[in-house]
Amino acid sequence: MVVHPLVDTPVADRDEVIVLSDWTDTSPDFVYRWLKRGSDAPSLQKGASQSIIGAASIGMLGDYFMRELRRMPDIDIADIAYDRFLANGMPQSHLSAKAGETIRLRIINGSASTFFLLEFAGGPMTIISADGQRVEPVDENRFLICVAETYDIVIKVPEDGMYEFRATAQDGSAHASVWIGEGCLHAAKNIPKANLYFQMGKLSLRQIFAIAPNDVMGLTDARVAAGDFDTPGKLMHSKKMASMKHEKTMSPEMSLASKAGSSPMPAVPPPASQKAREEEPVQHTAKTARGDIALAYPVPASPSGKRFAWDFGLLASDVASSTPLVVDGSSPERPWPPYSKLRSLHNTAFSSDKPVRKIRLTLDGDMERYVWMINGEVLSESDSIKIKKGEVVRFIMINRTMMHHPMHLHGHFFRVINRYGDCAPLKHTVDVAPLSTTVIEFDANEFGDWFFHCHLLYHLEAGMARVVHYEGFELYPALAEVRPDLYDEKWTAFGEANILSNTTEGFVEVSSSRHIFMATWEIGWQLIDYVESEFVGTYDYYVNRFFSPFAGGDMFLNNTDTEVGRGVLGIRYLLPFNIDSRTWVDSEGGARCTLEKTLQFTPRFSIKGEAQFDTHDYWEGIIGAYYIISDQFSLMAQWHSDYGWGGGFQLQF
Fold first, then answer.
1. Is residue 324 reached through a cis peptide bond, with omega within 30 degrees of 0 on the bond before it?
2. CA angle at residue 237 from 236 to 242, to 5 degrees?
3. How far is CA 607 from CA 196, 598, 601, in A?
């Protein structure tokens, strides 16, 4: 539904609506479970993997190990590997138009979790409206639209040709196209992928030995409360973080040259098979309002967002194979949303007589466990954000994660504070960029309870939401009865099993945001005269990505009727270089310390090492090699200090 103003001056010859969306052939429940288990499959499928050899191939091995020392996981622009991206329900479609005609495209991002980079091959796009609110016209060649946003743009159809309006997924995995006009094809330019290896700032001892995740980048709760990050913009621009500034990358070539040396580094070409799939034109049937029409010329095939799932080239699914790369948001090749350029047509400032309530909200998360929070809490463990009718409410949103979060407030339009002051634009959804602050304010004039949340579907499901509550408002009894359902905690179950010729081992986990119940097993038989088994069951309480205390039991038995059971109490802690450590004491006065580390040499091949010292059994060591075949199946070979060499496979479920 489009609501037109009573007096609407024509801005174009006609209007067309384009709804952008994403599509996966996989069940959403399965997608969410895979995210919770920290699977590498989505990155591999869409060509966003990172590895040691990949980093070395483009001269960014130092950045790779800097990230490891900071105890950060692999970086990604988006969580999900989608099969297709759609414009009005199709990967490609055709919009008839005459040369010289002006069209207002009303763009709606209705995707579940995809930001899109928009561009038109026929020339600049003139933004005239954002989230349904008019702004002074702004010409853009390319800009980013976040989930749930809408923009009205005006384009002019050039002479002689069909020009591509392209919406490219921000992670670069694929795109959707609307071909506008008649005649020869004119495709939009390809967008370079984001440089996921790039690390901001210089490594310091403070970062390496930080106690908690937020300490690594200096984004502590104390500094948030002190107002150190209240100014809109990138957090690295704070005076106290000046030492962490980095050089801007002005072009794809410069983004790599600044890391590799004084001259631009040559691009690493993608595999020939990949290039052929992406560039080969095919005969295509496009749809119009009049029905299907066969185009008399080839239209480029629309790529699959999972086109690397079965590509077994050495670095085929590594982002390093997509050079040249650009640091996201650092140049016109990969811009962020155009908020700094948006100016309302009228004064949007509130009366100076109104009281102002300032509320700081940190956006927090753990990509590996897929927990997303506001002020360090998921929705199920949070209180409402309380406000009063008649005041101006200012949200200072401080993003302490490496992901974009499209924050949406129901029931209100808010001012996005930018350089235009009293004429700051009005919106209902705003992107809070990684390691950045965004400030919004709204007139508290809609008495009631309103949902405020990240509009990435799976971030919302994982807890990044709050209820904004007007003081004095009472729910209707029927609504009050079901309100607790909003705060229900979602539990997820998954596991892993290694089946080898000398041993079998694995785990099963059932967990929520904070509570983790895990059972692990190890059964070995090679090089010994009997079958030896160990079963460990624990309950963990998740504090943050670095630290979790746990309690449980350890049972050891073999077929010679030897059986030992002990209670255990310990901690898990993530050490620098992303080394997982587990230390416990047991009910018999003993102790155990375990260290684990995985080295990802290529997107599909990794080596994992484990060293364990137990005061009862002394040393145990494991070295294993893994090769990923699919999202649930890997081949593996392993040496165990007790059971020798073995080969087999790993199943994830």
1. yes
2. 75
3. 22, 6, 8
Chain mean position to CA 394: 26
* Closest of 321, 333, 171, 189 to residue 248, by C-alpha: 333
Q: Which residues pair with 581 in a beta bridge?
A: 573, 595
SS3 of 343-359: the string is CECCCCCCCCCCCEEEE
443 alpha carbon, distance to own chain's centre: 31
Q: What is the pLDDT of residues 182-217, one digit of tens each?
A: 999 999 999 999 999 999 889 999 999 999 999 999
The mean pLDDT value for 329-353 works out to 96
Please give the distance of CA 17 from its chain centroid, rounded to a whole number. 28
Q: Residue 234: left if φ>0, alpha if ψ -120 to 50, beta else—which one?
A: beta
Q: Quick one: pLDDT at residue 1?
A: 61
What per-residue string of b and e applies to 193-228 under the rule 16 or more CB within 10 Å gives b? bbbbbbbbbeeeeebeebeebbebbbbeeebbeeeb
Q: Which of 310, 640, 401 is nearest to 498 (CA)?
A: 640
Residue 479's Cβ-count burial label (10 Å; 0-12, 13-18, 19+) is: exposed
Looking at residue 242, the DSSP 8-state letter turns out to be G
Alpha-carbon distance of 328 to 588, in angstroms, equals 54
Residue 303 binned pLDDT confidence (cut-offs 50, 70, 90): confident
pLDDT tens for residues 104-149?
A: 999 999 999 999 999 999 999 999 999 999 999 999 999 999 999 9
Tokens of 91: 């990967």
Token representation of residue 209: 């030995």
Q: Give the DSSP H or E segment for 485.
A: helix 477-486
| 3 state SS of 477 | helix
User: 142-175 pLDDT, tens per residue?
Assistant: 999 999 999 999 999 998 899 999 999 999 999 9
